[in-house]
Amino acid sequence: MQGQLLYEYAVIRLVPRVEREEFLNLGIVFFCKQTGFLKCVYAVNEQRITAFCGEVDMPHLKSNLESFCKIASGNEDAGPIAKLDTASRFRWLTAVRSTIIQTSKTHPGLCTKEEEKLKELFEKLVLY
């Protein structure tokens, strides 16, 4: 199909107790190599997070999520990872890690408009 763009995305998750493997979806990191599009969006619903896992250091959580977004957008103040090319930043953000902020496996798809698809995924997988 003409005009279709291959994209990849991963769900950003809060995993408060890694050993339990329980998580709450907080955001999406979305990448399209063809256009160089890389964006991260998230939502912090404090009531939902507290009900899910009790006490969480909300300022620290928000700071970590904001760092994800700064790296995705390549902000100069986001450190050396933010200076990498777009594909490398996406791969770094979606790398397997054992912290309370993790991402799902990456998932591919086709779309015509990256922003619209990102919004759709965010609403479906995070906000529902």
Q: Please summarize the sheet with the most strands.
A: 5 strands, antiparallel
Radius of gyration: 15 Å
Poorly predicted ranges: none
Structural class: alpha+beta
- Shape category: globular
Ends apart, CA distance between termini: 30 Å
Strand residues, percent: 25-35%
The percent range for helix content is 25-40%
Overall pLDDT:
92
**Count of DSSP-assigned helices:** 4
Produce a short descriptive summary:
By secondary structure, the chain is α+β, with helices and mostly antiparallel strands.
List keywords for this structure.
128 residues, globular, alpha+beta
Walk me through what this model shows.
The protein is of the alpha+beta class and 128 residues long. 36% of the residues lie in helices and 26% in strands. Strands 1, 2, 3, 4 and 5 form a five-stranded antiparallel beta sheet that branches. α2 (58-73) runs antiparallel to α3. The radius of gyration is 15 Å and the shape is globular. 21% of the residues are buried.
Topology:
Elements (H helix, E strand, L loop, with lengths): L4 E10 L9 E9 L4 E6 L3 H8 L4 H16 L12 H8 L7 E3 L3 E5 L2 H14 L1
Antiparallel strand pairs: 1-2, 1-4, 1-5, 2-3
Helix pairs in contact: 2-3
